[in-house]
Amino acid sequence: MGVRLSRIGAIVPQGSTAEVISMSSEVSMVSSALERPSIARRLCNANPITKRGRQLQMAKMLLIPMIPILGLIIQTSLTLSDVVTHNNKLVVVGNNVDRAQELGSLIHSLQRERTEATLFVNTPEDNLAHHNVRVLDTAFLATDNVLAKLKEWNIYGTSDPNFASRRNFEELLKLSRRQIEKGRWSGRETFAFYVNTNAILMRSMTKVVYKTEHTRLWKLLLAYTMAIQASENIACETALGEEFFTNGTLGKNESYQYLKYVALGKDVLKTMQQYSTIAKQLYANLYLVHKTNVEITERQRGIILNKVTSKIHEREVNATVTREPIEAQNNATSETNGTNDNEVPVSGEIGGQNLDFSFNITELDLWIDTMNNYTDIISMIQNKLHDAIDAFIFRDIDGAKNEVVASVVILVIILIITPLIFFSIQRLTCTIQDYAIGLSSKTNELKREKKRSDNLLYQMLPKSVALQLKTSSTVPAESYHSVTIYFSDVVGFTFLSAQSTPMQVVNFLNALYHFFDFKIDQYDVYKVETIGDAYMVASGLPQRNGKRHVGEIASLSIDLLEGIINFKIPHMPNERLKLRIGLHTGPVVAGVVGSKMPRYCLFGDTVNIASRMESNGLPLKIHVSSQAKRALDKLGGYRTEPRGKVDIKGKGQMETHWLTEKLEDAIKSRSERPGALQRGIPRGSRGGSLFPGASTLTSRI
């Protein structure tokens, strides 16, 4: 620091000495502050050699993983608690749905019982033989069986003591049935009893459904409730229809009740279909396309028209009823009948049948069977909705159980591996120093391996291109205005291969390419590709070398021809190789193609022409194009002889030449320039892709 200050004092004016001293004191304060480690730094950088340092390091290593482990334990515990709570809610939902389904089954049985009971009460005594009393007993027994299967009895929304317990309700049913069987109740009293009973059960079932807290089930639950309500309305409609077919007419109140139940049934079914696509599809498939739909519509029309007709007749006789309710009822059926409001029959006939009614058990049974079919269809929809709800709940319960199992397994695994983690951390901390020593040697080894891999990469691609490819995923293609391309081929290679085994061919090519690569190392050229006996070399890329590229290729060609004379085939020492060489100078585009195995490719017509020069040449001759000849003339030091015009495939007649020798000027000029090896770019083992060689091979065919 003193040396630095003396230097500062030497270069600043004398008047600035105080400033220099002040600055030196500030520097001393800063340096002393930097030299004093803070408490946090001492804790973080504890010396593992001392006992206290080892203790601090061990505590630090154990505390750091403890934080996320505790967080994971807390999170897993909370998740487990939430999943268990959700599972319990699903169980409650399932129980509520089962209770609602049981109440729905009881309501359905009571509806059937009401149908038979009202029929029994309304049927004249002289016709009871047609309606076997055992049918009513069967309906009573079916209701008792459903009631006995109820798991629990909780009826909400009523203070009636008859519904306080199952026993009280059973006593109520027995008393009511006794009144029905002994004929003490009229049809209206019987109908009212069952309507009130089912209304209480419906309210209780609705409350059970509404107690179900499930955001994704409410539509199905509402549709299920609507189906049961629709079934109740249809059952009431059936009972009133029985009265009509038994007595031949309905009273004023019964008529309005009938219209009300018909309208409510349709509205409730429509609402049910809006809440559930399952119910909508089932209703369309089971009812709308079924003959029951037509039969019910026809009988509803008959019942409504009879009531309208009787009211018109009553108005004409007694003048006690206004025309407004008659018109309202006519409008409700005008579209179905296809008649005008003014065409309501005022005579004693309906659809050609006389109003002088006589009891017809056939029509009554047909009405009951039709409405029972309708009720069965609605019951099927109820069961399908219940199955869909059960399936949904079971899926959620299974999912919740799986989550519970997963959470428990995770928690157990955490509790098991936590001691193992601490033990491993302790062992790991003790061996960190040993690994640090080995890390240094591994780092040096990694550097050596990296250097080897880089050398392999430089053998596949030009070094400049490889470096660029390592820094970015893609290397843009580059255009070169003037390069020289070399192609050579071994004459008679096919014959030699036929006379040799595959292993001999491989050894022969290996020796030949070693010879070529040795020669290439002496020139500023780049070996692009080798395919069989074909050899492609370029100069002037990827590093531009001015106009020297044609001279480098020409010198290499002459050197190869001179050296190939003394080359001996390993398994055929008496045979001599003959090269056929072609050169061409011109523009090309070069770039890296592919991602799995990137290859340095050359594109352009120059490649094709160079290939044609080789394929149209002669053994032990260097065939050059006129462009390459002009470039050699400008460079100087090479002698050529004209060959004349040659018909080149795809190009027509071209003026070509033979390269014969290299003069002393070229040799001297090259010896004065830095050689290829002095440039620091080893070339002998470099290689790329002869992608344009595909066009070269095509041009040879």
From TrEMBL:
Give the matching InterPro entries: A/G_cyclase (IPR001054), A/G_cyclase_CS (IPR018297), Cyclic_nucleotide_synthase (IPR050401), HNOB_dom_associated (IPR011645), Nitrate/nitrite_sensing (IPR013587), Nucleotide_cyclase (IPR029787)
Gene3D superfamilies per record: 6.10.250.780, Nucleotide cyclase
Which EC main class describes this enzyme?
lyase
Instruction: Please indicate if the UniProt record lists Cell inner membrane as a keyword.
Output: no
Pfam families per the record?
Answer: Guanylate_cyc, HNOBA, NIT
What does the UniProt entry say about where the protein is found? Membrane
Residue ranges occupied by any Guanylate cyclase domain in the UniProt entry: 484-614
- Could you confirm whether the keyword Endoplasmic reticulum appears in this record? no
Checking SMART domains in the record gives: CYCc (SM00044)
Entry GO MF terms:
adenylate cyclase activity; guanylate cyclase activity; nucleotide binding; peptide receptor activity
GO terms classed as biological process = intracellular signal transduction; receptor guanylyl cyclase signaling pathway
Per UniProt, which keywords does this protein have?
Answer: cGMP biosynthesis, Glycoprotein, Lyase, Membrane, Nucleotide-binding, Receptor, Signal, Transmembrane, Transmembrane helix
Gene Ontology CC annotations of this record: plasma membrane
Topology in the lipid bilayer is annotated as: Single-pass type I membrane protein
Query: What does the record give as EC number?
Result: 4.6.1.2
Family affiliation: Belongs to the adenylyl cyclase class-4/guanylyl cyclase family.
What protein am I looking at? guanylate cyclase
* Protein source organism: Owenia fusiformis (Polychaete worm)
